Each structure stands twice: as structure tokens, then as C-alpha cells.
Amino acid sequence: MPDKQADTTVAQQVELTIGRLDSLSTLPCVAAQIFPRLQQGQFSPSALVDIIESDPALAAKILSLTEQQGVRLPDERFSLRSGLDRLPEGLVCDALVSVKVLRGPGQDYNRKQLMLHSLAAACCAKGIAEITLPQMDSHLAYFAGLLHDIGKFALEEAMPKSFVRIVEEAKSQRAGACAIERNYLGTDHTIMGRRLAQKWHLPDAIEHAIWLHHSDTVTIYQNISGARIAAIVQLADSLARQSDIGQSGSFDLPAEIEPIANVLGIDIEQLKPIRQGLKEQVEQRAKVLGLDISDAMSRYADAAGATAAELVHNNTRLSDENCRLQMVSSQLDFVTEFLFSVNSAAGAIDIAENFATRWQKFYQTGMVCLYLAPIGDLQMLEAIVVENLSQSKIVVLSTPAATPAIPKAIANRFAILDAQDYVDWLFEQLDIEFDLSRTKIMPLLCAGQAIGAIIFELHWPGDAEQFEEKFRTATSIAGAVLDMSLAWQRQRRFAEHFAVLISKARDTQPKISADRLLCALAEMAGGAAHELNNPLSVISGRAQLLAKNETDKETRRIINQIEKSAGQISQVIDDLMSFAEPPEPKPTQTDIKQILDESVQLTSQKTKIEHINTQIEIADDAKSVFVDSAQVVSALANIITNAIESYTDEPGYVKITAELAKIGDFVKLSIRDSGCGMDAQTLQKATQPFFSVKAAGRKRGMGLAHAVRFIQLNGGSMEMASELGKGTTVTIYLPCK
User: Fold this and answer.
1) Is-above-0.70 flag for pTM?
2) What H or E segment, with its residue span, contains residue 672?
3) Cα angle at 67 between 64 and 69, to 5 degrees?
4) Cis peptide before 689 (omega within 30 of 0)
5) 315-352: pLDDT as tens digits
6) 568 shares a domain with 463
7) Span 503-517, pLDDT tens digits
8) Residue 360 and residue 212 share a domain
9) 62, 67, 73, 140 from 83: Cα distances, Å
10) What is the DSSP letter of 375?
């Protein structure tokens, strides 16, 4: 036994391992009962309810599915049967077909013992709920009892050796499982079970029972609303352990029955009928699950084989039908769902995983591998592998030194190739085996260049030509989205590196040139704009093509939304490009009054305010400046617009003065307002591209950035001073000649 309690790191690792479980596995004997009922013409969710209600793994899976589908099961009239009836049959069938089967050596016995104990606790909880005052829904109590130990199920499944050691330690010390678990793992099955209940969106009452059934429910009964169901399950757990049905993995004395019964308003005598009928109830449910079957594995294999044959037959028939049907609508659904599922914060490899999983499901392929081309001269690349039933994982592969990651035959053109002839280095590194005789490879193209490739098993290789155009469309859209994500990642890394350099420069050179900083920002903005333009053009073009051939109004509306969003992004890119690569100024000697008058007129157009309250004073010695008047007018209009918008209530006045500067051959312009002003932190960022104090989506924050850029390009300079609540003064120096 460890000398000290496991540290926080161990607990985090354990919770991370358990948290990866999407569902619990069932026993082969249970699968052998289910699979024959899934065949075509025989499947009915209600016909399986007796099995599902008796197996913690299946019950948790279906309860989670009802929540995902928005099917609410109220605590007052809780019914899994009702939930099954409201779920699509195909969805229930898919969930049951995909259930994992426990095959680890020695795990059958441990799982059966846990299941018998859980069944006993469930039956007890149901009986207790029926006699409590006030009564609690007995079906909800039943499932709370059935699932109260899912943390142990998860531990036994994910960490079988640790589970066995914990049980042996608990038995030798006559101790409870929780104490030993905390010693070994830094956490216990109640916490792990609660995490899974939250992840799987199980009902709150069941989550509370899982979490609190080993707590002092008598003490916390009055303080925590979920303690009532936990008290029922704790009492049921004690009765089940006293009846010696199954084995929970705990060997300490069960919780005392009388205090819990008292707090629930139960007389001890009322519990006797529950105890007396318990063994028979558990035996009936164990028989439904086939826990007494001696040759469970062979029966499971036969049932799985028959079901697989049926599914293959159905898939073949459906494929033949699909070949005769128009697939434009479904293809569009696939593309649209993929595009709308892309999270703006997701990385390229996450988007790749999303696409590869959807690809397998939509095209009904076998295993899929999608990889992105390595960056620069690196020989390491990331890949997504999707096995059958949409189980995916990320792997890191290396390419041979003399072999390109993307085969030359598809590096800059679309083609469907036999994968075994081109990427044998990839198959050698994967721990799964593709059927190479039917495995294809295609490029993910963007602007004519492959940024990655997708490899997949095509069940019917002859279909490759039939689906070629649809494959081309889907992969090109995926290529464009992935290329945009990769571009964002590169720019984000550049920005992070840029920020580090600025920080270092600030530490070593406090007087770093603002001009150099602005030029660097402009270079970064130009790079980002160029990176985004190509994939954006592909997305917009594809959306226009899809909309042109679409007749369904709702689908056309969705495509138009995609095209509109692409247009909005394009406007952002235009702002970036005009900031990064403005036209070369063409200076001429221009009257300062003319420049100020045109600036006010342009501001009026921008703000849609007909009469702007400006006070303009021009000194006699400030006649003209030598600048590109169009660029300077645009810059001044942006500054005046900011001044007007600084007034939160009614538009205020803006005072503009022009005089000859005391030093140098410059005209000094001052633009003052008495608006809201800025604090020091805001003032420091005010001229940065895309900085705005307006709500997101209201303004892009390029006005002052453009102003500074144009003024500096014309040989001038700009300074800002501001005080919060008192207003802002912008001082501009423009060359006289």
C-alpha cells in the first residue's frame, strides 16, 4: 500500500483517463441478448426495454441519448420506456449496435458481481421510494440505484489492474472502497461517477445519488436538495450488501439503516418485504441479461456475426438504391453541416477530425485517415485516424526524407488514387490495418495546392467514378476551411512571436520607434490578408455554385448566409489590405482650409449627420501643406468622426485649429472634443488596428489606425492626449513643402 495519499497530479491523470469514456461497455452475454433483436423487421425499442433497464451501461447510454436529443424525462413521472418511444428507432438501433463489449481477461467476473450488486441496490431503491413520505418517483429511484456505482464500472473498465488491487486491499483491510481509492488514486468512484454523469448529462437526481451515496446523508439531508435521493440509494446500498447479493468492492460495515430510515420517514418493519423479495427480483433481471449463460462469448460471436451479415446485406441494398437517387441535396446537407459545425476557435487538427468523422458517416466508408502536410522542412505531421463506428484519434507520423508527404500525382490536381501505391510509409506507422485493395487517397486542395490528403476504405471501389464530383466538392471545401485555419494558426503564432519581440524591445529599448512598430504591424496585417484571401475565395465560389443549382428555399437561405458571411470577412480583409498596402501618396501644395472643409464634409457622410458642430480657426501664417489631399482628408475625417462619437448623449462640438509649428516647416493641427475621453490604457491602444471600445460587431476599429498610417505616409506625425470624462486632443503635424 502506498505510504502516502496520491497527489493531485495522480488524481488529475485518473480523472482524465476516466473522462475519456464516452460510454460503458456491456458484457458479451448482454450483447448476445441484444443483437438478434436488432435485425431488420424484428427491432423495436420497447421490446428491448427490459434489457436496457437491467444493464447500467445500456441504461446510462440511453439516458444520455435522450438528453442529447432534447427528450425530457421529468423527475415526477420518470420513465425510460417513454423516452425510448420518443427517440427515432434508427438512432436507438445505432446506439445499441455501437455499444462496446467488455473482453478483458477476468473482467467478466468483476463486472457480473458489480452488476448484481447494482441490480440489488436498484430494486431496493425502487421499493424504498414507494414507502417514503412523501413518496418519490420509484422509477427514478430505481435508476439512481442502478447507476450509483458507475464510477466503479468506469474504473474497472479503464484501469482493470488498479481496480483489482483496490478490491484486494479493501478486502484485506475490511475497508470501504472509497478510502482505498483515495489512497491509491487521489480520488474515489463517487467523484469519478459524478464527472461521468455530468459529461453524459444524466438527470440531476441520479447525479446526486452517484455523488452523495457514501456521504453522511442524515446530516446533509436538510441542507442539500439532492440528499433525499442519495439517502434512498444509501439505504438501498446497505440493504443490498446485507443481503449478500453480488459484490460492490467494499468490505467495511454498511451504513446503519435505522438513522437513514428515520430521516426518510420509514419504519424498519416496512423494509422486511423489500428484503424478502429482493433475491427473486435480482434473479429475474439477471436472467433477462443472460448473466447465467455459460458460453456467453461464443453466443455473442454468433449473434454479432448474424447482425453484421444483416447489416452488410442492408448496406448493400441501400447503396444500390442510393446509386439511383439524386444526391445533390444530401451532399449539400453534408457540406452545410460541416461548415456550421466549425468553431472559430478550433484548431486545424480539430477541424480535420470533425471532417474525417463526418466523411466516414456520410459516405459509409470503412476506416479513414486524414493528414495535414508538414510545415516547412519538418518531416513530422499530424493525422486523424477514424476507425469503424466513428472512433477517432490523433497520431503523429514521420515522412521518409526523400518522400513527399503529399504524392506528386495529387500535389496540385484532384485525382482518386490507390493508396497502397503511394503512401506505404504511412500504413507502416499506423497500429491498424487498412484493406489496401480498396483503400483510396485524394488530396485536400486549396487554390490548386494540396494542404493535406484523405485516405479511406471504399466499400465498393467501383463507386469511385460515380462519386468523383461529389468527392471533389467536399474535399475542396474541407481544404479551403483547413487552409484558412492553418493560416490563422500561422498568423497567431506570428502575432505571439511579435508580442514577445515587442516586450523584449520595450525592456531593452524603451524608446522603440513608433514608425518601426507601425510598419511591422502593417507587414503582419498584409501577411494575414494574403493568407486568408485564397481559401475565402474558394468558400465564396463554392457557395455561389451550390446556390445556383439549389431549388429548396431553406437550403438556399443557408447557402446565402454562408456567402454573406464570406462577404463580411472579405470586407475585413479589404481593411487589412488598405492598411497594409495603401496607395503611394501623390503630394501637391494644397490650401489648409480646403482640406479641413472637405474633411468635415466627409465626416458628415460617414456619420450621416447633416450639420456637424465644428469651430475652425486658421492662423494667417498657416496657408497650405504639401500632402496627398485625399489621404489626409480621409485621415482627418476618421479623427473628427471619433471626436463626434465620443459624446454619449447629444453630439457636441469639435474645435479645430491650424497654426504654423514653432519648430520645423510644419503646420500644426489640433482637433479637440469634450467627450467621454479615454484612460491611459485605452489611449495607448487607440491607434492599433482592430482596437475598438464599441461592442463586438459594431465597428472594426480601423479608423485611427488608417489615420496614423496616412499621416505618416505623407511625412507628418500624430499625437493624442486624453483624460477620462474631459475629452481628447489630437495634434497633427503636416509638412508645408
Assistant:
1) no
2) strand 666-673
3) 110
4) no
5) 555 555 554 445 556 777 788 888 888 877 788 899 99
6) no
7) 555 555 444 454 555
8) no
9) 8, 9, 7, 13
10) S
